[in-house]
Amino acid sequence: MFILQQHLSLLVLFWYASVFVSVQGTPVPVTIDPTSEAHLGNQPNYATLRARFELAQTLLANLYRIFSTPNLHRNHILHWAFGEVSPDDFDDIYRNIGVLYNPESYALISAVNEAPTTGASAMQGANAYTNFDEHGQATGLHFKTRFYTLVNQLDQAAIVIHELTHLFFDLYDCFLKDPPYTPTFLPVMEGNNYNGPDYIWGFEHKSLYFLTAHAPHVTKYNADSYAVAAIMAWRVKDMKTDKDIIKALKSGNAYTHTTLYDYLPRPQNKGARVGKAGSSSKGSSGKGKSSKKSKSS
After folding, report:
1. Is residue 52 part of a domain?
2. Is the separation of the CB atoms in 224 and 162 below 8 Å?
3. What are 109's strand-pairing partners?
4. In terms of DSSP bridges, do strands 183-184 and 109-114 run parallel, antiparallel, or are they unpaired?
5. Which of 51, 127, 130, 153 supports an S-S bond with 147, CB 3.0-4.6 Å?
6. Does residue 29 carry a pLDDT above 60?
7. Are 85 and 228 in contact (CB under 8 A)?
8. 188 or 88, which is more confident?
9. Is residue 265 part of a domain?
10. Can you spell out the DSSP letters for 189-228?
11. How distant, in Å, are the alpha carbons of 81, 85, 124, 220, 225 from that of 283?
12. Rounded (10°) CA dihedral 20, 231, 255, 21
């Protein structure tokens, strides 16, 4: 019965995707840059990657719809993935979701089947990552071969959404452990060479819910908040009551594969500081760091 329900859910999901595509009247996935498609379209696994972008867009369309008007679903998803945010922070979050959902937001893809050992040491265990040049400008998304070994398609779509937030908004994965929980790129940039203050990860199975409870003022900068919001919004879209929505949210993690990020280095060297870690810039983007190299999921 459980397997049958899973198959039915996927059928409904892909039906929803086809309806979304027909309404938009444009090829899917609309977020892959045409230049990337021209160069990479013949590579192995590209068709799978394209399908996961399509699925990600379906999830984002649903999330944008839910966040467009005050309702039970928006209240619960916002609180679950971002915490009790201020009106200004909600506006930034909603604006970001709108960009992610916008068919004219194109994503540059640099690699479809990157080998596990390619790239910086901190990225070698990743499913995907976003690369940046020396000026802090995103140069494209890199997808590792292990991305295609993930069984759950929603996990893959969530990774796409996570990476898009890095690409479009320069969002973060790490935050300093102590108040005001400043976002920081340094642990990912420096990997095992990081010698700065203690930090926490904003990933769902790490410290996302610590941030939503204690630091909602920084969650708009957290890449995984958007991926979790998209998955959970899909899960509860047909629920009618508070009780049913809460039950659905608590039924399991957004990601089914909870070891997606276990390769990442652990916090170390308590108390040591290396310059100014992170940024306190205002607005919906975390841009402004010129030394970052890549962010991953």
Report:
1. yes
2. yes
3. 141
4. unpaired
5. 127
6. no
7. no
8. 88
9. no
10. HHGGG--SS-EEE-STTTTHHHHHHH-TTTGGGBHHHHHH
11. 18, 13, 32, 9, 16
12. 10
Strands 128-132 and 294-296: antiparallel
Q: Are 67 and 142 in contact (CB under 8 A)?
A: no
Number of domains in the chain: 1
- What pLDDT does residue 193 have? 85
The pTM of this model reads 0.78
Cα(70)–Cα(254) distance, integer angstroms: 23
Task: Answer yes or no: is 98 within a domain.
Answer: yes
Tokens representing 243? 């009780």
Per the listing, tokens 């920084």 go with: 218
Specify the CATH number for the domain of residue 116.
3.40.390.10
Whole-number Å distance between alpha carbons of 89 and 282: 10
Distance separating the N- and C-terminal Cα atoms of the chain: 32
Residues present in the chain in total: 297
Give the tens place of pLDDT for each residue, 55-73.
Answer: 999 999 999 999 999 999 9
The letter for the amino acid at 72 is: L
Question: Is position 6 within any domain?
Answer: no
* Residue-wise pLDDT tens digits, 96-152: 999 998 878 888 898 999 887 766 555 667 899 888 777 777 788 999 999 999 989
Amino acid, single-letter form, for residue 167: L
